[in-house]
Design goal:
single chain; 323 residues; 2 domains; four-stranded mixed sheet; 10 helices; 11 strands; elongated
C-alpha cells in the first residue's frame, strides 16, 4: 500500500479514527522501481510520503533477526506515544493519512500518477545525495544466503595448572585443542590457546603456554595464515570454498571482535548482508557485520577489516570483467 506511486510495507490504522493510518512501517529498505538506486529510492520515497502526511518507522532485518521482541516493543511504544500525544494535545482523530489517499496494488508495481511525477520534480537534490565518501556494492545475482548459526564457545573439562606442563598431560591437551577447533573453528590461534589455558586455571596466555600448546595442536588440523595470525579449521572444511558464518546472540560468550574472525567468514557475512540489502555504503555494511558479531561499536580497524573482505569479493569480479 502507499500513495503517489510509492508503496509501504505495512501501515497501522489509527485506533481513534479507523479511516486513517497512524504510522507506516518500512522493512529493511526494500528496493522500489521509482529511483536510480535502492538508497536513493528509500530517501526519495520517505521524503515524499512524509510530505504527504505519513510518519515512517523503519525496521531493519538485522535488528529483527537478532531481537524481534525488542523491535516489537519499540514499535508498540511508538504507537502508544503517538496516540497519547494526540489525546493530550486535543488533536482531532485521524491526524495521519486517510485511506482514500492510499493506493493498494497486488502485483507489487507502483502506480504512475501525475502527483508522483510532480513529487519527484519537487524533491531537492539533497534528497538524492549519498553520504560523503560512501560507495555501494551490488549484489551478485546468483548469490544465496546460507542459514547462519550462533557462535558458541566450547566447554572444556577443567585441568590442574600444576600438571599443565607434565608429559602425562600432553595427550589430554592435544585432544582438547582438537575438540575446541571442531566446536568453534575456524578460530584464531590465541583464542584457541586461551580457551584451553583457562580451563587449566591459567589466567594469562604467555609465551611459554603458547609454545607448549602450539606444539600439541594435531598436525592433521587445517590452518590458514593472515598477517601475524593463524586460524585453525575443523575437519572436513575447505577454507577456499567455505561460505559459512556464525552470528552472536544475547550471551557474552557468543560475541566476537571482527579481528577474531577469519577473512573467509567475514566475506560470507558481507555476502549475507548484501543479500538482504544489496545497495549499502561500505560503512553501513561494516556496521551491520560488526553488529551481527555482537560488537556494540565499529572502530576504524574493524571497519577496515570488513572493507578488506569486500575488496576481496569485488576483485575476482573486476578481473573477470577486465578479461
Amino acid at each position: 500500500m502507499g500513495c503517489s506511486g510509492y508503496r509501504i510495507d505495512l501501515a497501522v490504522v489509527d485506533p481513534r479514527a479507523p479511516g486513517r493510518y497512524l504510522v507506516g512501517i518500512e522493512c529493511d529498505g526494500r528496493a522500489y522501481h521509482s529511483g536510480a538506486t535502492a538508497r536513493d529510492r528509500d530517501r526519495l520515497r520517505q521524503f515524499i510520503l512524509e510530505g504527504l502526511g505519513w510518519r515512517i518507522h523503519r525496521i531493519w532485518s538485522t535488528d529483527w533477526w537478532m531481537n524481534p521482541e525488542g523491535e516489537v516493543e519499540k514499535l508498540a511504544n511508538l504507537l502508544q506515544s503517538l496516540v497519547e500525544a494526540g489525546e493530550d494535545n486535543g488533536d482531532p482523530p485521524g491526524g495521519g493519512v486517510s485511506q482514500h489517499q492510499v493506493n493498494v496494488d497486488s502485483d507489487g508495481t507502483p502506480e504512475t500518477s501525475e502527483l508522483a511525477q510532480a513529487s519527484q520534480e519537487s524533491v531537492p537534490a539533497a534528497a538524492f545525495a549519498s553520504p560523503s565518501g560512501a560507495s555501494a556494492l551490488s549484489e551478485d545475482g546468483g548469490m544465496t544466503a546460507p542459514v547462519p548459526r550462533v557462535y558458541s564457545p566450547a566447554t572444556v573439562d577443567a585441568g590442574d595448572s600444576v600438571s599443565f606442563y607434565t608429559a602425562q598431560s600432553s595427550k589430554r591437551l592435544s585432544d582438547q585443542l582438537r575438540q575446541v577447533v571442531e566446536a568453534e573453528g575456524p578460530m584464531p590461534e590465541m583464542v584457541l590457546f586461551r580457551r584451553v589455558a583457562r580451563a587449566w586455571g591459567l589466567e594469562r596466555t604467555g609465551a611459554r603456554i603458547v609454545e607448549r600448546l602450539r606444539g600439541l595442536v594435531p598436525h592433521t588440523v587445517a590452518r590458514t595464515t593472515e598477517a601475524h595470525e593463524t586460524f585453525y579449521w575443523p575437519t572436513g572444511v575447505e577454507p577456499s570454498t567455505w561460505k559459512g558464518f556464525r552470528i552472536a546472540d544475547a550471551t557474552e560468550g557468543s560475541k566476537r571482535h571482527v579481528a577474531e574472525v577469519c577473512i573467509e567468514e567475514v566475506k560470507a557475512l558481507v555476502q549475507n548482508v548484501l543479500h538482504d540489502s544489496s545497495n549499502m555504503s561500505r560503512a553501513d555494511v561494516a556496521r551491520t557485520v560488526c553488529r551481527l558479531l555482537g560488537m556494540a561499536r565499529t572502530p576504524a580497524e574493524a571497519e577496515r577489516r570488513v572493507v578488506d573482505a569486500m575488496e576481496l569479493l569485488v576483485a575476482p569480479n573486476a578481473a573477470a570483467e577486465a578479461s
